[in-house]
Amino acid sequence: MNVSGLVWGATLVALTAVLLVDLLIIGRRPHEPSVRESSLWVAFYVALALFFGAGLWLTAGASVAGQFYTGWLTEYSLSVDNLFVFMIIMARFAVPRQYQQKVLLIGIVLALVMRGAFIAAGAALISQFSWVFYIFGAFLIYTAINLARQGESAEEDFQENVLIRWSRRALPISRGYDGAALTVRQNGRRMFTPMLIVMIAIGTTDLIFALDSIPAIFGITHEPYLVFTANVFALMGLRQLYFLLGGLLERLIFLSYGLAVVLGFIGVKLILEALADNKLSFLNGGEPIGWAPHIPIWLSLLVILVTLTVATIASLVKSSRDRRRELAGVGPREPSGQ
């Protein structure tokens, strides 16, 4: 796929314009969006991604469009999992609901910047060293195993990292929030509000998630343009999705297991592709081994769709069953993810 500088430039300008509209909306009227408002925005962003994929289909073919759709779906599902952690951070630091939009949007912008840097670095490494796929694949399998062991994120599982703890000790932090401001003047002294700590928590969380998501998308397509656009479209509308799903996030108790299967599958796919490229001739007396099955993009898309659908349905069924038992007085509701 040969993407000209003009296409790259037009894409960046268009996507930046959409983000600026989001910034202007929040800057003009910080508020907690209604279900209707959130639904319309999420539908708009999903339709935008679908139309973009259709445009790729018409201009570059079905294979390229399939890679975009598969990558976008994978990144979107990983982004939904990110919302669990964002929700925990918001609760942990008691961020007022009307200011959570700003926190989420800044988190999304940080995620875009970090993922852009990782995409550029990953593309450069892959173009020079094909064995990087082995590292990416092993990392995804390792991540999948850890995700399956840990299950759903819970508030007590959130541990403040070194940077957050250092910020608490070293910086003058005020006792309460001052709207969405990062600084406030108290008793003639300029101090940071707890909002800065929240931003640091969100930013470092974005960094960790980028380490998972970028190898995952490179397991689906090697095209930097598709990797970048799939990530951007997956992150767009994430703040509205946060408010739209609301309590539903707590009911998706098996989503982490579904994502573990997806990441494990992509990790195996990456290693198989590396075997197909390198053939590991050094293990066979200099002769190429020559065996490595190719997993077509349609099969990858099918596996991801089926896995996420099953995980979602199973989560909702179990959550509904637990709620009925709780209302009937059969016993206390089981902890999520147990």
Give a verbal description of the structure.
- The protein has 338 residues and is mainly α.
- The protein has one domain.
- Helix content is 72%, strand content 2%.
- The chain has 12 helices and 2 strands, in the order ααααααββαααααα.
- It has a two-stranded antiparallel ribbon with strand order 1-2.
- α2 (35-60) packs across α9 (238-245) and α3 (62-92) runs antiparallel to α7 (194-218).
- The chain is globular and about 65 Å long.
- The termini are far apart.
- It is found in: Membrane.
- Belongs to the TerC family.
What's the SSE blueprint?
Blueprint: H1 5-28, H2 35-60, H3 62-92, H4 100-128, H5 132-150, H6 162-170, E1 183-186, E2 189-192, H7 194-218, H8 224-235, H9 238-245, H10 248-251, H11 255-278, H12 297-328
Antiparallel strand pairs: 1-2
Helix pairs in contact: 1-4, 2-3, 2-9, 3-7, 3-8, 3-11, 3-12, 4-7, 4-8, 5-11, 6-7, 11-12
Keywords: Membrane, Transmembrane, Transmembrane helix
Main location: membrane
Subcellular location: Membrane
